[in-house]
Design goal:
211 residues, seven-stranded mixed β-sheet, 5 helices, globular
């Protein structure tokens, strides 16, 4: 495929993986975890369609404006539902722009590895850090960065972020709030749901939150 179905893009954020990152929330998720932070990303036919080339050029443009950009994060939704297209984008990101790739998935790593799906394996091959496992409401836990339940795991698939493995307990979760000219308030990052809802109630206009 030459396109990706996208829910939302944030060009520069520091709360969705290591360093400053360009983040793509893909649209569509067959897992649909109870208590999911982003249920609006479940609809497989929702969101907007972006050409891979357009996404790549926007990432390149963001890197030119922000040379400290460290990488790209895929979350959602479920990135492995669009693995073939994302693997192609990730390959160009890593080789042409020398940026890292972080991928979130609701599928356990073992399930991904055993799947007889070439696109899934290619996306794994192009991922530096995989954060895997479904969100389990009864195991809700924000003590580790970027993830929301105790069952979820960090998989350092390359050496790029291996140095962070022992530092994880010292990395705090953070929340970013953006106020837009049209009155829209958007939030992303990890925080208690009640805190996010309180912050969003303080604003006006359309409100949207993403983990």
């Amino acid at each position: 495929m030459d396109f990706v179905r996208v829910s939302r893009i944030v060009e520069q954020t520091k709360v969705e993986g290591p360093g400053l990152r360009y983040v793509i929330w893909v649209q569509g998720c067959p897992i649909r975890c109870e208590g999911c932070f982003n249920p609006h990303t479940w609809d497989m036919n929702g969101g907007e369609i972006y050409a891979l080339e357009d996404l790549f050029q926007d990432i390149r443009s963001t890197l030119e404006r922000a040379p400290e950009l460290e990488g790209v994060t895929f979350l959602g939704g479920e990135p492995f539902s669009q693995a073939e297209a994302l693997s192609r984008l990730a390959g160009r990101i890593r080789r042409e722009l020398n940026l890292s790739v972080v991928t979130f998935s609701g599928y356990p790593y073992e399930h991904i590895k055993k799947a007889e799906d070439a696109g899934w394996q290619r996306l794994l091959d192009e991922t530096d850090l995989l954060i895997d496992g479904p969100y389990i409401k009864s195991q809700h836990d924000l003590s580790r960065p970027w993830i929301g339940s105790r069952n979820q795991q960090y998989r350092f698939l390359t050496e790029r972020y291996k140095h962070l493995e022992k530092q994880l307990p010292k990395i705090p979760n953070k929340l970013e709030i953006r106020l837009h000219p049209d009155g829209t308030i958007t939030a992303n990052g990890m925080a208690q749901t009640a805190d996010i809802e309180l912050l969003l109630r303080l604003g006006y206009g359309r409100k949207e939150a993403n983990a």
